[in-house]
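Sample pair:
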Amino acid sequence: MTPAVDAALGTVMAHLAILDFSLSSFGFWALDILLLLAIAGVVIALATDDREPSIVLAWLFVILLIPVLGLVAYFFIGRNFRRDSPGRTRIMAQMEEVTGKTLAPVMAANTEFSEAVVAGLAGTAGQRIEATGRTEDDAVPLPADTVDIFYAGAEKFPALLEDMSKAQRYIHLMYLIWKQDELTAKVTDVLLGRLAAGVEVHILYDWLSCISYKKDELKRLARAGATVAPCYRRLPRINYRNHMKMAIIDGETVYSGGMNMGQEYIDGGSRFDVWRDTHFRMTGPVVAPYLMLYAATWLLNGGKEDLATAYMPPPAEHGRGDGVPVQVLYSSVGTTFKTIRDVFITALGDARQRVWIQSPYFVPDEPLMTALCTAAASGVDVRFMMTGVPDKKIPFYAAQAYYPQLLRAGVRVYQYKAGFLHAKTVTVDDQVAIIGTCNWDIRSIILHDEVVSVFYDEGIARQAAEHYERDIESCVEVTPEAIESLSRRIRFRNSVYRLFSRLL
């Protein structure tokens, strides 16, 4: 090879190197621009989705700290896929039509009852609570012919098994968690017996929450004729949970509250000495809104049948004072209002004597935190009880970061030490009791499908308050001295978990 050729090749290689560097530089700039555009898109999405500033700042912190992983995390667990989606809008329109045909007649048949309840609540905290639920959720108090409150799985599940064994038309079951163990074996046997007798069985369970549990029994039930379906199985919706628990039998009986389907909810399982929970059983017209919720959830998760029209019982008319007044409230990431949270806030703002709260977790949003502290500072006896034996460390540590502010405002905080406390209850002024599935944490009040019943009954409220006092005997009260004794490392850990708990 001649010197001239060598020189020519050298020149070409030099130009190629310059071109390669230029292309590489352009590539890096292009990636930077795409990353900035993605971050800008996330900021716009957060701002236009009516997020709280604390949530926006938390996501921005993560995305700026770890941009690529932060954007991936936001895509899967931060976006709101359900609000105003075409499919959801179509189904909600369908459910509004069905409600007009099925639930509206039940409400109309009990107008005299509902109006008498509202009139009787005048001048009490219950008046504003009822008004909030009626305005935001279009829900009115309906009569329950019977109400049974269960404070342990050993009380609830034998009653449920007995009721299911007597079903004549249908059994609808919906649980966040459906395990495969001693309890579910008994449930499966009962359901197989009813299927053989011609009873229809529908089962909904939360896909992600149950992903680690065996499905042999559910598959066996499906082969026997039951219709079994998971909720929120699509990957883009992986951050949403159907947290509701309910069993509806023949349109006459409903069970709901904190307990899922598993032996752990009876005896605590291998992790806990005690599982403390609250559940209830009701009969009467109040079953109707639960059936509507089941039907809506069924459609939203791919079901084809109109379960409400097919299974709603004929309206049963009740007059003034003919039953226990119960208002059924629902909220989720897709509802216009955070109704359950707003009812909690209303209760705190209008209580005159006390608001006693139980929840396994405590990661509130700012309006709920403000309402708690304001109520306590105004002289209301506000108490918050959560588990002192956690099943999940992150929310347990995050909750402790809120303790100092609560204590300064006068809120009394208790940690239940006998086992795991899973109850979700609120007692207001010995007049109102709220029992259901909703925790006092950011996921339940914003992301999850949740349902609660508001009991406008002094007897039930007193019963709840008496059981709360018994639970206090198994608690340790958190004091300012205990908080001050925490090391800086522990306080920093709690604050970090509190920050990351805002990532929705």
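Confidence is low (pLDDT under 50) at residues 2-24.
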